[in-house]
Amino acid sequence: MKKLFILAVATSLSFGAATAQTVSDAKAAKSITAGPVITFAEKSHDFGNIHQGDVVEHVFKFKNTGTTPLVISRVDVTCGCTTPEWPKEPIAPGKSGQIKAVFNSTGKLGQQNKVITVQSNSVEGPAQVTIITNIQEKPAGGAALVKPAEGPAVTAATNATAETKVKTSNGKTKSKTKK
């Protein structure tokens, strides 16, 4: 009977210690995340195949999931081909912001993986997002290839007009209308 009593007491003490440890761990975890936290909707964006000289951009959306205002001090890029834009004012807890990344593919060829590092007062330290693309040689003539639509509607529409917009390497957009 004594052994059974001692076993019951030992078991209840171990359960009590485990519960106390879980509560203190939860409090410690909560105190670690107190402060600003930058949380991105996506960590990477793939532009797919583009041509040399194309300029593409993507907006990375984020939210301050912390408890105090988030301040972005700077955004670092791996080379001059990527230009970031970010909010200069503090982002309140629960509010959202965005970082725009503009990538200029002039002088680049092949698979590209550009890392953008966001320096802020986030308790988790610097955050990183990535843009990915595969740069192909520019087609002869300097304009992007436009792949025509396929199917019976295209061959039947002989009097239809089509407008194509081509962004050239000098940044101008040209519109061409064909009959």
Put simply, the count of helices is 2
Radius of gyration: 28 Å
Structural class: alpha+beta
Question: Could you tell me the strand content as a percent range?
Answer: 35-45%
At the fold tier of CATH, the topology name of the domain at 38-136 is Immunoglobulin-like
Largest sheet: 4 strands, antiparallel
Number of strands: 10
Task: List the helices and strands in order.
Answer: HEEEEEEEEHEE
Give the overall pLDDT as a whole number. Answer: 76
User: Uncertain runs with pLDDT below 50, 5 residues or more?
Assistant: 145-168, 173-179
Distance between the termini: 100 Å
Coarse morphology: elongated
CATH 2nd-level architecture of the domain at 38-136: Sandwich
CATH class of the domain at 38-136: Mainly Beta
CATH homolog superfamily of the domain at 38-136: Immunoglobulins
**Helical content class:** 10-25%
> If strands are numbered along the chain, what order do they take across the biggest sheet?
1-3-6-5
Signal peptide: 1-20
Protein name: DUF1573 domain-containing protein
Organism: Adhaeribacter terrigena
Pfam families: DUF1573 (PF07610)
